[in-house]
Amino acid sequence: MSTVISSSDANIRRIKKLQINNFRLYLGIFIILTVIFMVLMASYLTKSDPIKQDLMNTLQGGTPEHFLGTDNLGRDVWSRLLYGGRTDLILASAAVLAPFILGTILGAICGYFSGWVDTLVMRIADVVAAFPFYVLVISLVFILGNGVGSIFIAITLVSWVAYARIVRGETMIVRSKEFIEAAQTGGISNRKIITRHVLPNVITQAIVYAMSDIVLNIGVIVTLSYFGLGIVPPTPDWGRMIAEGQQFLAGGYYALTILPALAVIVTSLGLSFIGDGLAVALRVKR
To answer: What is the total count of domains within the chain?
Structure first.
């Protein structure tokens, strides 16, 4: 009797855990879809130019024309918030795509073939991973110079390592399965085995990691812009907005800093919820 009750309690806890996870996943999707909609529809949600200055109306509070007010140069805060989000999200997402593709390909090749290729790539990965992520990216951007292109290159050169290691580990597990051995025995080429049988079974973990990687990229982009090493002005950017607004905190103009910081937090939270939800869903499926 006690065994039945214990089993029932375990099932109830499992169901509650799944319900909580599903709620977080759906909440994350809702948050991110809302953010994406707002930044992509920025031209319809605001009529103000995000880089247009109006020195006669600086540091205003909410008005019918500027309902979130203006900054120290008279630029509309709401407009800059939306267009800045578009800049950061597009760059953060694009900066995930390149290392995702590169790391996945290298990881699959290393995990499937092993040998000297695996040794060479993994030693390079160890060298890159030996340096703190932020320090290495900031150093590369400092060398390459400010701008979107420099940030994209710097993140790609560093971020591929995580994807390569994830896919390599999963590939080494998959390659010992019977269906891979059957494909090899049947004379199917290694290229087709990797693309048709290996990658579909290992890429999901890389996709889950990509969600958290976008969060990391947003943090990198905002940090670089905060220190003047990121997006080149006058292009709006959340990090630049935080840095510019910080000097007016003493005067009581908190919104200039709090609003872009809140945008970063909400977006990162949504992406984290999606990543956690997918990870749990995949574990349950397995």
So the answer is: 1
